[in-house]
Design brief:
Layout: E1 2-7, E2 10-13, E3 18-26, E4 34-39, E5 46-51, E6 58-60, E7 68-73, E8 78-83, E9 92-98, E10 101-102, E11 106-111
Parallel strand pairs: 2-11
Antiparallel strand pairs: 1-3, 3-8, 4-5, 4-9, 5-6, 7-8, 9-10, 9-11
Length: 112
């Protein structure tokens, strides 16, 4: 089983920044990539970004390219999502996922 704990969400103004963290634990999690997804009210959950634990491979949704950066710290078993130039449409609950497991989510609210 893999345990994922997100943190770092909050309220920020348009143009601001936040850094989300996903602390992972459990067996075999390092064999899978880690991803961030988000779900806004009334909308389906959508992919945001993903990274291999080696950090070599990253992937981003078009809507966040150039603004968000995903990274990993193997020593801390933590994956980060640095979010810059935030927009109101980035408002959502952000979830970390790995090996089919999901964290509890962290709320990000961007005010206009």
């Amino acid at each position: 089983q893999v345990q994922l704990v997100e943190s770092g969400g909050g309220l920020v103004q348009t143009g601001g920044s936040l850094r989300l963290s996903c602390a992972a634990s459990g067996r075999t999690f390092r064999s899978s990539a880690v991803g961030w997804h988000r779900q806004a009210p009334g909308k389906e959950r959508e992919f945001v970004a993903a990274i291999s634990w080696s950090g070599v491979i990253t992937n981003y949704a078009d809507s966040v390219k150039g603004r968000f950066t995903i990274s990993s710290d193997n020593a801390k078993s933590t994956v980060y999502l640095q979010m810059n130039k935030l927009k109101p449409e980035d408002t959502a609950v952000y979830y970390c996922t790995c090996s089919g497991y999901w964290g509890q989510g962290t709320q990000v609210t961007v005010s206009s």
